[in-house]
Amino acid sequence: MTVSAAPNSIRRTPGARVSVAPMMAWTTPAQRYFMRRITRDALLYTEMVTTGALIHGDTARLLAFNADEHPVALQLGGSEPGDMAHCAALAEAAGYDEVNINVGCPSDRVQNGAFGACLMAEPARVADCVAAMKARVTIPVTVKTRIGIDNQDSYAFLQTFAAAVRAAGADHLTVHARKAWLSGLSPKENREVPPLDYARVHRLAAEFAGWPVGLNGGVTTLESAAAQLEHVDSVMIGREAYRNPYVMADVDRRLFGHDATGPTRAEIVAGMRDYIGRHLAAGGALKDVTRHMLGLYHGCPGGRAWRRVLSEEGHRPEADLSVVDRALARVEPEFEEAPA
Fold this sequence. Notes:
Elements: E1 18-20, H1 29-36, E2 43-50, H2 51-56, H3 59-63, E3 72-77, H4 81-94, E4 98-103, H5 108-112, H6 123-136, E5 141-146, H7 155-167, E6 172-176, H8 187-190, H9 198-207, E7 213-216, H10 222-228, E8 234-237, H11 239-243, H12 251-256, H13 265-281, H14 286-290, H15 303-314, H16 321-331
Parallel strand pairs: 1-2, 1-8, 2-3, 3-4, 4-5, 5-6, 6-7, 7-8
Helix pairs in contact: 4-6, 6-7, 15-16
C-alpha cells in the first residue's frame, strides 16, 4: 500500500524534532522546569493524565504548569471520544502546545481502564478520538504508540493503525520501537525485554512521507538521535534524559541549529534556586524538586556525593536550599557553601 502525502493542514508542535518522553511519576512540573533550564527548544511532555481524573478530579492542579515550560504537551489517557475531546479543550484552554493520546502504556491499571497500548487493537476507536479532538481544538493532536502488541506485531498491523489515525487528522505519530506484551511482562520489562525494531519505524516513516512520524526507544545520546533523524521526523529521549539529564545540554545547538553551547551544570543549579525557593515557600518539600536533579552530575567526579547529599538530606522536613549548597560544594570546587 502506498500512502499519499499528508494534507497541508498538519501542524507541527514547536520543539517536536526532539522531545523528552512522557514518563509516569517522572515528568512532573518540577522535572519539566528543571529540564527547561537545560534545553530551551526540546518539546516536553506531562505524565499521562486520564480523562476521568481531569473530568472528576482536581482539574486545575492536574493541568498546572509554569509558563517557562513551553513548548509543552499534555498526554491524555482515555478511549471515549467525547471525553477525550472535552479534555483536549481543557488542555488548549490551559495553554498547552499539544495534546497527545497514550496508546503505548501496557500496565494492568491502564488496560483495566481500556486505554494505553491495548487500544492498538482498536484503530477505529483511536481514530474516533482523534477526530473528536481535532473538531474541538486548534493545537496539534498527536498519538504515541508501539510497533505492536502481543502476537499482533506485523508491519501490516502497525500500518493499519497508522493509516487510521492519519486519516482521522492526527498531526504526528510517535512510535516506540518495541512491541508491548499486555500480559506476562511488567511495565519495566516492557521497556527493556521486547527487542527494538528501528527498521520498522523507518519503513513506516518512509511510506507515510509528508506526515510526521517519530521514533522513541533506546535513544541515549544526541549522536544516536541525529542518526535516527536521518530516517524519521522526530526523536523522543526517555529514561536517559531523566537518569542523565545533562545529555540534553547541547541539544539546542546540535539538533536545533543554535549557535550557543548549552549551560554548565552549575548554571543549571543556579537556575533552579528561585523555583525551589517558591516551592518551599508554598509548603512543598525540597525532595519534590531535587529528586529530579539527582542525575545532573552523572559520571562526574563527586557525582555520587551530590546524589548522596540530596537523597539523604533532601527528604527531611526542614530541608532547604542549604542542602543544595552542600551538595554543590561536593562537585563544584569553586563553589563555597553559604554560611549557616
